[in-house]
Amino acid sequence: MNKLALFFIFVSSIELLGREVQQSTFSYWNKPDINIFYSLPTSINENTKILFIMHGVSRSAERYINDWLPLAEQRNVVLIAPEFSKEFFPEYVYLMKTNSKGKKLKDVSLHLDDSLGLLFDFFKSKLNISTLNFRLYGHSGGSQFVHRYLLLSEETRVEKAAMANAGFYTFANQTIGFPFGIKNMNVSNERIKWFLNLKGGIFLGDADNDPKHHSLPAMRKANKQGKHRFERGTNFFNDLVNLGVESKMPFRWRYQTVPDVAHENPAMSLAASSFLLEDL
């Protein structure tokens, strides 16, 4: 067999062994259809897990899931990246409940605080997966979506969640209006207790510290959280620590900085994968 044939067989083997991304349209709800990008492990069994990957304001769900393909290559996990279009879900980072100024949106049917639970049920059924819970990752705008979903939804089947480089945060503070706090958002003490007890993680690139970054939210109340993403994330985590101490509630979150990394999803995905995929 000549060298060219050997090379062809080798390359073909890599392609056959590598993960693929599939695309589908999800329409099994009372909201506009959304595109779903997903990738399956080699086989589905009783230990297979589901990880949702939430895109940022670029809405580039396919790029986000592609960043995770090499990280999940030998892992028993289904990757799912929903894409919330700007046309139908312009304020997805606020779960379509308000805009950035806190003004409530009229169409409550578009609220996204049930979205991941519905997608989880759909893929469990579609793929015949037996897992009882799922995991979450979000970067930038996706990180904003994830922590607000954890606070404001009624979903309790989240096993782990990693939030990376959010532009700003919704603090678990009943005196500050949404989306900067949870005033008038009907978040119960039981939900806050569940939120603090979750296996959550704040992941921050220590070079994501540009106060003039082109996509950094610059509203007055966002600026009060810190000068840049790194400072805002640190302040949010410290506030959760204090809340746990003051309320005497168990607190299980982790805080991790990623050296020399700015606002970069691939590097943040790599850091978060050690947490989200460590047991798979």
- Provide the domain count: 1
Tally the beta strands: 8
Shape: globular
CATH structural architecture: 3-Layer(aba) Sandwich
Could you give the order of strands across the largest sheet?
A: 1-2-4-3-5-6-7-8
What is the mean predicted local confidence, pLDDT?
93
What is the CATH topology? Rossmann fold
Q: What share of residues is helical? A: 25-40%
The CA-CA distance between the termini, in Å, is 39 Å
Content of β-strand: 15-25%
Stretches where pLDDT falls below 50 for ≥5 residues? 1-17
User: What is the structural class?
Assistant: alpha/beta
Order of helices and strands: HEEEHEHEHEHEHHEH
Rg over alpha carbons: 19 Å
CATH superfamily: Alpha/Beta hydrolase fold, catalytic domain
Instruction: Summarize the main sheet.
Output: 8 strands, mixed
Helices, by number, come to: 8
CATH class identity? Alpha Beta
